[in-house]
């Protein structure tokens, strides 16, 4: 009985401490919503979005109009972005709005929280939150 209890305790501790890839921002994500925390706007319907954070500290994406990319580093629950480069096509309407919101959240240092298959990234000034879902 003692061995069973110790074995179960060991499994529980290892499961609680073990971080899987789902606890990492690395991977491909799609945009679910953006805007102020209490007034989120759903991503434009029928628009393919993709944001990738790779293992080498580079991020890239497209949320409906322009491609963008840059460097990032993670420290705990903060993510620091280097300069973001983007193509320069004119984007208007809902797609333009969501692109502006996403790119504004990717400035300097932002806070992020991963909850299952979603991540919320809050801009440095706290005025913009984007919510992404793992692809």
Question: What can you tell me about this protein's structure?
Answer:
The protein has 135 residues and is α+β, with helices and mostly antiparallel strands. It has one domain: Lipocalin (Beta Barrel). The protein is built from two helices and ten strands, in the order H-E-E-E-E-E-E-E-H-E-E-E. The protein has helices at residues 2-17, 93-105; strands spanning 27-35, 41-42, 50-53, 58-62, 67-75, 78-81, 85-86, 109-115, 118-122, 129-134. It has an eight-stranded antiparallel β-barrel with strand order 1-3-4-5-6-8-9-10. Strand 8 (109-115) and strand 9 form a beta hairpin. The longest helix is centred in the first third of the chain and has 16 residues, at 2-17. The radius of gyration is 18 Å and the shape is globular. The model is unreliable at 1-21 (pLDDT under 50).
Q: Could you state the order of secondary-structure elements as H and E? A: HEEEEEEEHEEE
The termini sit apart by 43 Å
Quick check: average pLDDT? 87
Work out the helix count: 2
CATH level 1 name:
Mainly Beta
The share of residues in extended strands comes to: 35-45%
Classify the secondary structure makeup into a structural class: alpha+beta
Overall geometry:
globular
Beta strand count: 10
Which residue ranges are poorly predicted, with pLDDT under 50 across at least 5 consecutive positions?
Answer: 1-21
Helix content: 10-25%
CATH topology: Lipocalin
Give me the side-by-side strand order of the main sheet.
1-3-4-5-6-8-9-10
* Rg, Cα atoms, Å: 18 Å
Query: What oligomerization state is this entry in?
Result: single chain
CATH architecture: Beta Barrel
Largest sheet: 8 strands, antiparallel, barrel
Tell me the number of structural domains.
1
């Amino acid at each position: 009985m003692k061995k069973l209890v110790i074995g179960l305790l060991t499994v529980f501790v290892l499961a609680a401490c073990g971080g899987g890839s789902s606890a990492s921002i690395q991977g491909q994500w799609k945009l679910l919503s953006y805007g102020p925390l209490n007034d989120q706007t759903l991503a434009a319907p029928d628009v393919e979005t993709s944001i990738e954070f790779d293992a080498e500290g580079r991020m890239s994406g497209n949320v409906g109009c322009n491609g963008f990319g840059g460097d990032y580093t993670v420290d705990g629950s903060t993510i620091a972005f280097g300069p973001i480069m983007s193509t320069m096509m004119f984007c208007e309407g809902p797609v333009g709005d969501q692109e502006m919101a996403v790119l504004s959240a990717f400035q300097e240092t932002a806070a992020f929280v991963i909850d299952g298959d979603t991540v919320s990234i809050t801009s440095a000034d706290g005025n913009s939150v984007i919510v992404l879902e793992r692809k």
